[in-house]
């Protein structure tokens, strides 16, 4: 057993950092008034060396960079509960986390980006052919490659085998939010990182391969295509575009939930059968910039939203909960932190599949009027009790 140094964070959360056998970082985030002691188990496994950092290739038709991460083919796929790789280790389950925990974050064993970085940093290997900055990545050419520097992390919301963010307590949700803020700040400081993206995939229909309640954080070596389009829209309209969107939606019929610091709404031009955006009322670029009051309100409000989505049907709804954050060094005063929660579920037993128009051409056709969707979600959310 070891006793990692305790670092106090907001809301009474305590952070403890250690390492797995192959050198990957593992961070425990203890709930306030946790029942866990300060000691943590040592990773007693003998692990293979980490895979080489993937490479990425440029699609010259779009300028997009595609990371070719072949090691991801070997990741766990729907294991039985007794072999859950995100549960605390036991003598019969050599999982990724040596100790009992409240919330745990660790580097992905099969990363899409990293472990190599663009420059030397705390003993992390340096990539042989890293991106040379945004200008380098923006240049178009045939056969262009770069090393997929960065970091991908797994965020375990609970030691339990099954569930999601929405099944957690308010206290646990607050701990996860504190972890998101802490990791956003830490990952943003790594050499070569341009954007940090926390997200949760929920449900086999989305492609989830582990039922354990968890999410991920990607630290990209570029600004993602979706954010690039967003920044272009801001440039073509006004720096306060997000504030204008917030006021426009707050005055309309699509608001589903509103607090002192956050508003959730179905967007005016929703693509998906279930689509909800959640914006802070104050401009913040990312989770690291949120204050205690905003984080405190977000925990119960976000839980109500997710449980309302689940209340739409008799079975849990698959979704992607994508927390969009501003790039690390660009548009910090105009790109606002916000959630885009989307689900392909268009009926109890029907999913929206992206076929020719959407998948091939990016030309979307909405199945449900946003005002109709908002009314259903608002009614479901109003029935939620925490």
TrEMBL record:
<comment type="pathway">
    <text>Carbohydrate metabolism; galactose metabolism.</text>
</comment>
<keyword id="KW-0862">Zinc</keyword>
<keyword id="KW-0119">Carbohydrate metabolism</keyword>
<protein>
    <recommendedName>
        <fullName>Galactose-1-phosphate uridylyltransferase</fullName>
        <ecNumber>2.7.7.12</ecNumber>
    </recommendedName>
</protein>
<dbReference type="Pfam" id="PF02744">
    <property type="entry name" value="GalP_UDP_tr_C"/>
</dbReference>
<feature type="compositionally biased region" description="Basic and acidic residues">
    <location>
        <begin position="40"/>
        <end position="51"/>
    </location>
</feature>
<feature type="domain" description="Galactose-1-phosphate uridyl transferase N-terminal">
    <location>
        <begin position="144"/>
        <end position="223"/>
    </location>
</feature>
<dbReference type="InterPro" id="IPR019779">
    <property type="entry name" value="GalP_UDPtransf1_His-AS"/>
</dbReference>
<keyword id="KW-0548">Nucleotidyltransferase</keyword>
<feature type="region of interest" description="Disordered">
    <location>
        <begin position="33"/>
        <end position="54"/>
    </location>
</feature>
<dbReference type="InterPro" id="IPR005849">
    <property type="entry name" value="GalP_Utransf_N"/>
</dbReference>
<dbReference type="InterPro" id="IPR036265">
    <property type="entry name" value="HIT-like_sf"/>
</dbReference>
<keyword id="KW-0808">Transferase</keyword>
<comment type="similarity">
    <text>Belongs to the galactose-1-phosphate uridylyltransferase type 1 family.</text>
</comment>
<keyword id="KW-0299">Galactose metabolism</keyword>
<feature type="domain" description="Galactose-1-phosphate uridyl transferase C-terminal">
    <location>
        <begin position="252"/>
        <end position="379"/>
    </location>
</feature>
<dbReference type="InterPro" id="IPR001937">
    <property type="entry name" value="GalP_UDPtransf1"/>
</dbReference>
<keyword id="KW-0479">Metal-binding</keyword>
<dbReference type="InterPro" id="IPR005850">
    <property type="entry name" value="GalP_Utransf_C"/>
</dbReference>
<dbReference type="GO" id="GO:0008108">
    <property type="term" value="F:UDP-glucose:hexose-1-phosphate uridylyltransferase activity"/>
</dbReference>
<dbReference type="Pfam" id="PF01087">
    <property type="entry name" value="GalP_UDP_transf"/>
</dbReference>
């Amino acid at each position: 057993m070891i006793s990692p140094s305790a670092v106090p964070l907001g809301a009474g959360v305590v952070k403890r950092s250690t390492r797995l056998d192959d050198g990957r970082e593992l961070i425990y985030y203890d709930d306030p008034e946790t029942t866990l002691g300060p000691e943590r188990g040592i990773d007693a496994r003998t692990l293979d060396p980490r895979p080489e950092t993937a490479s990425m290739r440029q699609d010259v038709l779009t300028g997009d960079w595609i990371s070719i991460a072949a090691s991801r083919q070997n990741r766990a796929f729907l294991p039985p509960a007794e072999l859950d790789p995100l549960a605390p280790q036991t003598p019969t389950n050599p999982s990724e986390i040596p100790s009992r925990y409240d919330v745990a974050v660790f580097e992905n064993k099969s990363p899409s980006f990293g472990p190599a970085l663009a420059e030397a940093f705390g003993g992390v290997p340096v990539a042989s052919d890293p991106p040379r900055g945004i200008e380098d990545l923006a240049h178009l050419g045939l056969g262009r490659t770069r090393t997929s520097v960065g970091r991908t992390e797994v965020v375990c919301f609970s030691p339990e085998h099954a569930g999601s963010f929405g099944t957690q307590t308010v206290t646990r949700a607050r701990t996860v939010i504190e972890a998101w803020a802490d990791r956003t700040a830490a990952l943003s400081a790594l050499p070569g990182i341009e954007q940090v993206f926390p997200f949760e995939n929920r449900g086999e229909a989305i492609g989830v391969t582990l039922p354990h309640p968890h999410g991920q954080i990607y630290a990209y070596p570029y600004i993602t295509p979706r954010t690039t389009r967003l920044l272009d829209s801001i440039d073509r309209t006004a720096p306060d575009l997000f504030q204008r969107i917030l006021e426009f939606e707050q005055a309309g019929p699509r608001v589903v939930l509103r607090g002192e610091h956050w508003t959730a709404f179905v967007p005016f031009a929703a693509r998906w059968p279930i689509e909800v955006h959640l914006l802070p009322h104050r401009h913040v670029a990312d989770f690291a910039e949120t204050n205690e009051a905003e984080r405190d309100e977000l925990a119960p409000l976000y839980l109500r939203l997710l449980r309302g989505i689940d209340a739409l049907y008799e079975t849990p709804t698959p979704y992607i909960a994508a927390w969009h954050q501003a790039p690390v060094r660009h548009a910090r005063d105009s790109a606002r932190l916000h959630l885009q929660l989307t689900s392909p579920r268009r009926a109890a037993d029907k999913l929206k599949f992206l076929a020719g128009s959407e998948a091939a051409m990016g030309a979307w056709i909405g199945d449900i009027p946003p005002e109709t969707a908002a009314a259903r979600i608002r009614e479901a959310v109003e029935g939620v009790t925490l």
